[in-house]
Amino acid sequence: MDSFFYKVVFYKKNKEMEPVVVDVKHRVQYYETDKMGYVHNSNYFRFFEIGRTEFMRTYGVEYSAMEKEGVMMPLIEQHARYHTPALYDELITIRTIVEKMPMSRIHFEYRILKTDDNGKEILVCEGWNELCFIDEKTRKPLRCPLWVQEKLEKVLPVK
Predict the structure, then answer these.
(1) pTM (2 d.p.)
(2) Which of 4, 24, 119, 153 has the highest Cβ tally under 10 A?
């Protein structure tokens, strides 16, 4: 594998109201590990950000485009639960899941996975975070921009 970062996408059309999943593959870099060779716990939040950014990009929503429109998405809550360590040079999957259309907030769930020698997925870390939409100038909450909803409604269930 030449690159330590590449994207694999799983599209789900939501006639059955299923969550939408985007997978990103990432090779663990040396600088992401601690003295034990484990991925340092703080990096899982960075992995969540990679997953979230690629999820949005996959469905035509880039953060830079929102910022040009004066919309910001601050993180308001975040959680991670660690199950087993990921190690230097392992290939991990950053699985990002969204189950419903955003309104004034958007909720992302994450599974960080690695594969054993038999090809079985092993859960390394799971977590979630929630972001809200705000006006860049006033810093006041906004509803999800219509153009973002239009792009996401093609794949996300409206609940």
Answers:
(1) 0.88
(2) 24
